[in-house]
UniProtKB/TrEMBL annotation:
Membrane-spanning parts: 12-35
Keyword NADP belongs to the record: no
Name used for this protein in its record: protein xylosyltransferase
Pathway: Glycan metabolism; chondroitin sulfate biosynthesis; Glycan metabolism; heparan sulfate biosynthesis
EC number: 2.4.2.26
Alphabetical GO biological process terms: chondroitin sulfate proteoglycan biosynthetic process; heparan sulfate proteoglycan biosynthetic process
One term under GO cellular component: endoplasmic reticulum membrane
Membrane topology of the entry: Single-pass type II membrane protein
Amino acid sequence: MAIFIRKFLYKYAKCLGVTVLTTFFIQIIISIILFPTVNDNLLKKFGDTSLGKLELNDVSARKIINGNGDDEDIPSKSQSDKVYPRLRTEELDFTPACAIESREAISAIHRAKTQNCKQEIVNKTCLIQNSNFYPVKLPNLCPSNGMTYGKYLGCYLDEKKFRILSSFYGNYATTNSPDLCIEICIQAGFPYAGVQYASECFCGDMTPPLSSKSIESSCDMKCPGDASKICGGYFAMNIYETGLTKFVPVTPKLSSHNKDSIRIVFLLTLNGRALRQVYRLLNVLYRSHHYFYIHVDKRQDYMHRKLSVLEQQFPNVRLARERFATIWGGASLLKMLLSSMKDFFALGWRWDYVINLSESDFPIKSLEDLEIFLSVNKGLNFVKSHGREVQRFIKKQGLDKTFIECETHMWRVGERKLPHGIVIDGGSDWIALSPEFVSYVVGKQDELLSGLDIIFQHTLLPAESFFHTVLRNSKFCNTYVDNNLHVTNWKRKLGCKCQYKHVVDWCGCSPNDFRTEDWPRIQNTLNRQLFFARKFEPVINQEVITRVEQLIGFNDHYRIQNVEAYWQNIYDTQDMPASTDDTLLSHAGSIIRHNAKTLLQEGCKMELGDIIEINLYKYADIYKGNLILYKASIHGADELLVETWYKPKHHLELNFQSQYVDLIKMFKVSSEYDQKEMTFRNFASILGPLSEPVLVYQFSPQMDKLNTNFTIIWLDPSGVIADVNTIHKEENNVTDFIKLNIKTPLLPGVWKVGLLEQNNALIALTKFLVTPLEYFAGREMSHQETSLIHSGSVSSYKKFSYLKDIDFLPGARDSLLLKELTESNARRIGQDLREWIDSLSIAFYDVLGSCVSTYSNNLKDKLVCGNYKFSECVSTEWSSLSPDPKGTIGKINTLTGRIDRI
């Protein structure tokens, strides 16, 4: 410390008075003595003192330090004597094996819903606390070429502008030592490590020049983390070998005249309901000499059921028998990939590369171009590295945290130390791997693989780091190509909004969908070794996919029927029941009853049967409505399939007397708002008592120039204010969203949302419907269920008595009538309930038409019903039963080995 103070005073004496400096250093020394815990925690977490300016009694600062996004279990300043919150053991049906110390683990245990998950978190946390869980050190099997771990090279003089080791710098004021610095440099993959000025650690990949070597006395400062060791001096550095050689990724060959045959396993990892897009992807990729291994998320019954028939049609298509619930960032993602790779080895397939793709991927070069490229680069492994400092990457990815997956959630349970001796790498989970490397990874585990298996079973986003880290530390290190063959549409400001907090205890980022305005980004890949792009979603933008097909050589679009149409299933009667199905069926049942009543006025009597499917329909990337496919009979004749097309009405009222009315571009309520794509996924705004409504507003850019706040009022069907929000002028939020913050169930009926000026004058008013449920758990509602679900949660509202004299609030008499009506509605069941539902939905949805299909050949006899003439669904442009060659699987062309889609 004395040497440090002396040199500091000498350096700055010309600028500062001695008295000021002396006082300054006394304060520093006192703070270190009195508050070592806080300082150590900050340094351990961030590796420098950059957070020294944070006020620890500030809530946001404590969130940063604790790495948590909420206030749960974070001690306040007044609770400074409470280091850890108490585990509420009374909530457990088992006795914990140890006293849980981790604040994050305790929070996870309290938030977990099932006892099995709580116990898993407890058991693993106890093993970690007892140091019996993670490996301390793992071997690096990459050839070292004569480099030796910890070999001392001497004391070298450094220069401020020309650092001897310039690849990484870190300041570790309380923990630095040669061993620590060497391990940090090994994690980053550098062959040299150097300690300087006591607290500084440098890494580099260039051999230090002998001309800079100095006498040992130039390095005279003790290490703060190990007083028995020396950590350099003033611009003097003790340098050590890490045992690694300089890492240089392989540069692949571009092309060759001697093209070898190539066979690819396309490992498709699918989720969601975009079946027609999966078919479109298969149409483009399919060749008879390649293989297609398909894993469908365990929860996606519809997708799996529809794709299962492909195994009978195509001998080179296989669906995974072991299925996983692959949540974003979950350990299950890596388990799924490894399980799938083991499986297609067991199938006896002979292949040269495995490439994993999702339903959101699409090729941006012809498959023949990919085959040529891979054929001249056999044996190489294509992964994409993060391209940043490894220590920053570790923090960003949460690799120094333990995560446990259960209840389809990744629970963060505390800090951990990564094992010594290995390089940490990662970046993208989209890969192209050789059979030799995959065989090693899924084969008999050696010490490296068994250790990494434990690490990555409890790692967030493990598929983004596992294969990279194995490559860097195994005998395959010289096959590493820093290219995952993908271009990804990153828009960080939109994609990094913590949209996955409901499934992971972390804030992650996700790429955006390509739209037509992103086309230049795809064009810029033409001369690069990139063969796929992501993400594509036809429900967001289909035109860009058609453009990509044209780019890679497809010229049949002028002959494809419905090339601009897109249908996506949102309900199928064969699916396993889901909680959202009750709302969909209640809503759809009302729509087809409206249709039947309209037909009856035309002299056509229709008897309704079961609902088979519900699809959303878009044309030219514009939402056109939903389609309900159901069974019905006309005048008691044979059963038909009827498809009815309908769409929601708009319910926005503007007060043109307001000076702000011209600012309103959007003011709408629905659910399933996608922050990243800035759109509702619930296109038809089908809401039920258990839905989570979201208001999205968009103002014109002139909003930024105004000096005013706005008020949002949510009014429930009984005329009671349910919630109030404020849009603050300083937030500059031209487009944003607000969630209704009340408990479910929501009171069924017509809700109103008003936008008010500061003087409570109304600017805009929108309405949305919360549809009463006809069904609960798939069966008709009982008296008890209706009274519980349809009574809402009015008693839990906050009181907003200060809001008075607002135009759209009901008067005292109307309030009383509305209250009596909602109480009466909550008792409706059976036909009475259906009539209530129908009276509500008719004001929010328009029926646009119907078409028919049949199981027999005599359909033409059934097209006329009374005064109404049905169209035939197969020849009706909007019908989901009309031809869609791009979104269905065609037949194999035996000459080309491809699928013909015309």
